[in-house]
Specification:
NADH Oxidase; 4 strands; alpha+beta
């Protein structure tokens, strides 16, 4: 078997990623580049391609003023970062099914009969999902896009830190979002690291993998 050759870019993105605790607060990320980062991250897979992830980008002093008090023991990194991306999962994601599948037909990615068949098959399934079942689906998809977002940011030359410790029961309402519809997933700080961060031990595949 030919040995797998890791590229320098691969090593930089995968093995060079750190959860950064301190940021250079003078570095700004343009909204144009942030939009590009989000678009690239949004190529992540999702259940029946419903893309239930939603992003709240906090990049203004006014936004930070609202977010910092909700950030518990992460206040300093939230204040320092160029931006903070609050990732949400949308319970009403199937409302976009017609548009998503219609665009797929329009762009030649899916035949009309396949679109009609799939939407007719999936609609009753989604309509009859319990809240717990829907949460399982959308949280998995939002987790996929969040990890991809961190890797895309790294490819753009930025560093990130995923944050689970914040006031999830308050964040949607504070920023004017429907807290019954949008489920908070995590915060992602993004910017230029002011320190290299720390490496951490990762268990080898031999200890985490079962074969069948």
């Amino acid at each position: 078997m030919k040995p797998y050759q890791q590229t320098n870019d691969f090593n930089k993105i995968i093995y060079g990623r750190r959860s950064i605790k301190t940021y250079d607060s003078s570095v700004k990320i343009s909204r144009e580049e942030m939009t590009q980062i989000i678009n690239e991250a949004s190529t992540a897979p999702s259940s029946i391609n419903m893309q239930p992830w939603r992003f709240l980008v906090v990049d203004t002093p006014e936004g930070k003023e609202k977010l910092v008090p909700l950030s518990r023991f992460n206040k300093e990194k939230v204040a320092q970062a160029s931006a903070v991306i609050a990732v949400f999962a949308d319970k009403n994601n199937f409302d976009y099914a017609e548009n998503i599948y219609g665009k797929a037909v329009e762009h030649g990615l899916m035949p009309q009969d396949v679109k009609d068949f799939q939407l007719n098959a999936f609609k009753p399934i989604y309509n009859n999902m319990s809240d717990a079942e829907m949460n399982d689906v959308i949280m998995l998809d939002a987790g996929l896009v969040s990890m991809q977002l961190m890797l895309v940011a790294r490819a753009h030359g930025y560093d990130t830190n995923p944050i689970g410790g914040y006031e999830k029961d308050q964040i949607a309402e504070v920023f004017g979002l429907d807290n019954e519809r949008y489920v908070p997933v995590m915060l992602l700080t993004i910017g230029k690291a002011a320190s290299e961060g720390y490496t951490s031990y990762r268990m080898p595949a031999e200890e985490t993998t079962f074969w069948a």
